[in-house]
Each structure stands twice: as C-alpha cells, then as structure tokens.
Design brief:
By secondary structure, the protein is of the alpha/beta class. The protein is about 45% helix and about 20% strand. The protein has helices spanning about 35-55, 90-95, 105-115, 175, 180-195, 215-225, 225-250, 260-280, 285, 300-315; strands spanning about 5-10, 15-20, 25-30, 60-65, 65-70, 75, 85, 100-105, 125-130, 135-140, 145, 165, 170, 255-260, 290-295. The strands form 4 sheets. Strands 3-2-1-4-8 form a 5-stranded mixed sheet, with helices on both faces. The protein has a 5-stranded mixed sheet with strand order 11-10-9-14-15, sandwiched between helices. A hairpin with a 2-residue loop joins strand 10 (about 135-140) and strand 11 (about 145).
Length: about 325
C-alpha cells in the first residue's frame, strides 16, 4: 500500500497528515502557526518522523494564496505574515527527498471533493468555498485548472451588481453577496432598517446587538421562522444563482460542489438559487449540472493535501 503525506498550511494552524490512496487519514499532527521559521521547522521535524515510519511516496501542500504553483513558491499570503517567497517545494525535496506539489487551498479542496467526496465520477467540476469568503477550484477534464499564473477560480471578485455588500474589496461582488461576511452585512442592513422603523428581527433586537450579527445567527433565526432573516438568505440565494449561472454558461460543469454555508443552510438557499439558474442558464447546460453540498466537512483540509500528493503519482 502506498502512503501519501500532506501539509495543510493555514493562518492559525498547520497540519502534517499521512493517508492512503482512498484519502483515509492514518496519522495527523496539528500545530499552531507561528513565525515562518519556527513553524516550518516544526512541520519538517514532524514530516521527517512520519517519513521514517510510513515511507510516503509524495507530498501535497495546500496553502492560501497568492502562490506560484509552477515554481512551488508561497508568495506573501495575507493570512501568513512573514511567509514571503517561501520555496516550500524545494525545501521538501531537499529535506525529505520526495516529490512535492503546491496548490492554493480552494483548488486543493476541489481536488479532494473530486477524488474522495461529492465530485466523484465527474470529469468537469467546480468547487466553491462559500465560507468566510468565496473562492473556487475548477476541475476540467479531470485536472485542476490553474490559469496563466495560478489565479484561476477567483470567482468572488466578479461584480454582480453596482451596489451591495463588499467582498474581495469590491462592492456588489459575488463574494459580497455569497459569503459569511456578505450575509452578515446584508443582515445588519436589514436589521437597521427594521430598528429605525421601531421593529426588531429574530437575530437582532437592538442597535447594541448589531456587532453580534453573523451568517449563523441569521440562519438560526430564519430556521426559527423569522421573516427578515429568511429574506436575507433569499437575497443571498438569488445572487448565488446569478453567479452560478455565469459559471455554468462559461464552463459547462457536470457538478458544482459548495462547502461551508451551503452545507449547513441549503434549505434556505436552494429554491431561490435554482429559480434564478433555470431562468438565466443556457437550458442545455442547466440540464447537465447538479449543485450539491460538499461531502468531506471537517476533514476537507487534511484530505485536500492528501489529494494533491496522490495527484503526483496518478497524473
């Protein structure tokens, strides 16, 4: 049996994992992300121990961008201060004598869902993060599509409207309407309108509570029957439908897999999202696509790094 090693590098924590060809995690060590020197030394100390015990055949590295995947270099991600031009793939080859590949986390998660999760059996698939922000990983003909310089899939930057919540530094963007931060902005605006009219919402009873409004508190209120909360998610669903329609018409995927908020709140999003997609998509492309929640849940980051490692020996 071949074993694979994965590095999942995040802004608050990192993990080194060992898994098999089915994406099952055999061993894992998680550490807090500190300064770049200390964190990398910890990662490689763990990796060297795992390499001696399990003899993995390759290493996959999942990290937030910007990256240069062709050269294997981490390029100053905003959530990793001090990680400037880190030649992580070269370091793996020198320290572990193993082939390695680096990929941004959205693309790595797309590969994991395609290989082990909700995208299994497809050739053309899109994965959307739909969490704090909105990013995409694109699988075309069974391979990750990186684009000219590794920035393919930044769908959150698409402007859907001149006005609206801010996401990805752009008012009215796809991320502004369809992300945790964007839903919170929509919910706060709706709550202020109610409060100024002498009314309240199920998720915000006073101006003092505005800072406590999140996508989750709004979803909980909507599930409990609050009309304003339901309409907030309705607007998000409508704009999600418009954004997905663009992707469907351009890329013609078989499946769109959506994580995080869609996994938890598809009941609040699917109906209006689908109404928009039926109206906006090219009918032949709409008929070919399924929109489904991600399947890997809390294991997604670990399996993403393992899927990258496995891709080295299967491509």
């Amino acid at each position: 049996m071949n074993f694979f090693m994965g590095f999942d590098i995040g802004g608050t924590k990192c993990a080194v994992v060992i898994g098999d060809g089915s994406g099952n995690v055999i061993a894992k060590t998680r550490i807090p992300t500190k300064n770049v020197t200390d964190t990398l030394e910890q990662i490689f100390a763990i990796a060297e121990n795992y390499a001696a015990e399990y003899h993995p055949v390759s290493v996959g590295i999942s990290c937030g961008g910007p990256l240069d995947p062709d050269e294997g270099v981490i390029l100053s991600p905003p959530n990793l201060p001090g990680w400037d031009h880190i030649e992580i793939v070269r370091m793996v080859r020198e320290r572990l004598n193993l082939p390695a590949v680096l990929c941004n986390d959205a693309n790595a998660c797309a590969l994991a869902e395609w290989r082990y999760g909700a995208g299994q059996g497809t050739k053309n698939m899109i994965f959307l993060t739909f969490g704090t922000g909105l990013g995409a990983g694109i699988i075309i003909d069974g391979k990750i599509y990186n684009g000219a310089n590794g920035n393919a899939g930044e769908v959150g930057h698409i402007r859907l409207d001149r006005f609206g919540p801010v996401g990805y530094g752009k008012r009215g963007s796809f991320e502004g309407f369809a992300s945790g931060g964007g839903i919170a902005q929509l919910g706060k605006t709706a709550a202020v309108e109610k409060l100024q009219s002498g009314k309240t919402t199920g998720y915000c009873k006073s101006f003092d509570e505005l800072d406590t409004v999140t996508a989750k508190t709004i979803a909980d209120a909507a599930d409990a029957g609050d009309e304003t909360a339901f309409e907030v998610y309705g607007l998000c669903a409508e704009m999600l439908g418009y954004g997905l329609s663009i992707l469907v018409d351009i890329l013609n995927p078989e499946r769109i897999v959506i994580g995080s908020i869609f996994q938890r709140s598809a009941n609040l999003l699917r109906e209006r999202m689908d109404e928009v997609m039926r109206r906006e998509c090219l009918p032949i492309s709409y008929d070919a696509v399924q929109v489904v929640p991600a399947a890997l849940a809390e294991d997604l980051g670990d399996k993403a790094a393992l899927a990258l490692a496995q891709s080295i020996v299967t491509e």
